[in-house]
Write a structure and sequence with these properties.
Length: about 110
C-alpha cells in the first residue's frame, strides 16, 4: 500500500509541476501579447505622425511646384507678348544712329 501511495504522491506532484509550468507559460504568453500589442500601438502612432509630417511636406512640395509652374507660364506669356515690341526697340536703338557732337567735346581753336 505504501508503494501505491508513493506512486499517487508522485503523480500528484507531477501534476502540480505540470500545472505550475502551464501557468508560467500562460503568464509568459500574456506578457508577450501585451508587449506585441504595445509595439503595434506605438508603430501605428508613429505611422500616423509620419503620415502627418510627410503629408504636410508632400502638400507643401505640390504647392511649390504649382507656384513654379504658374510663374513659368506667366513669364512665357510675358515673353511672347513683349518679344516683338522689345525687338523693335532694340533694333531701332541700334540702327537709328543720330550723329551728334558730345557736349564735352571742345573745339581746338
Amino acid at each position: 500500500m505504501t508503494s501505491q501511495s508513493q506512486g499517487i504522491q508522485q503523480l500528484l506532484q507531477a501534476e502540480k509541476r505540470a500545472k505550475d509550468k502551464l501557468e508560467e507559460a500562460k503568464k509568459r504568453k500574456g506578457k508577450r501579447l501585451k508587449t506585441a500589442h504595445y509595439r503595434l500601438q506605438r508603430e501605428k502612432e508613429f505611422r500616423n505622425k509620419q503620415t502627418n509630417v510627410m503629408g504636410s511636406q508632400g502638400n507643401l512640395s505640390a504647392k511649390i511646384e504649382e507656384q513654379t509652374a504658374e510663374t513659368v507660364r506667366n513669364l512665357t506669356s510675358s515673353y511672347h507678348k513683349n518679344m516683338e515690341s522689345m525687338m523693335k526697340k532694340l533694333l531701332s536703338t541700334i540702327c537709328d544712329i543720330n550723329p551728334e557732337v558730345h557736349p564735352n567735346f571742345r573745339h581746338a581753336v
